[in-house]
Amino acid sequence: MLNLTKTKSILAIATFATSLFLAAPSYAEDDPADTCASAASLFKEGDVEGALEEARWCVTQLEQLKQGQTSAYFKDEINGYKGGKLESQSMMGLSTVGRPYNKGSNSIQVSLTGGASSGANSAFAALASFGMQAATGKRLRIQRRSAVLNNDSGTLSLVVTLKSGGVLTFESNDLSEDELVAFAKAFPIADLDDSRK
After folding, report:
1. Domains and CATH numbers, the chain
2. What is the pTM of this model?
3. Is 124 helix (H, G, I), strand (E, B) or coil?
4. Side-chain half-sphere exposure of 97, counting CA atoms within 13 A
């Protein structure tokens, strides 16, 4: 009898969890304009708690939309390299978008790190600028942006400071400095940077 009760409880929990999972995509597909308007409407009605929840979801949706727009600049193919799985994360006001690129046995990891909002981007830009001034390595310019190239025991990293805030990093264990710089020059850095302003 006890086992049957446990089994029913587990089935009930599993059914509830599955229904939440299946319902999530329709909620996630809400239009940010509707969610933001709903937050304002709930506030006018005096439901501050509901308005806060809707406002948080509105901000989350807008951040996801912005990340999606940024991801479009991580093209499927750049300079003969094929793009792998695109990954993006947002946590504590910072967002990261990254994608590996491969050609034969050579690979490059490209990642963009910056603020999830314009205010956070401004703060991140100040930190990145300070970090670039203190960084050691070969300094160069790529698409009118400052960059620093480092070779740490065969691991190359090229860090480009964006005018909009944030840094774009190219890393490889397989390429020469010239090859990594050539890839970075082929990447749409300026277009990506301008889209974030």
Report:
1. 2-67 (no CATH), 74-195 (3.40.1000)
2. 0.63
3. helix
4. 23
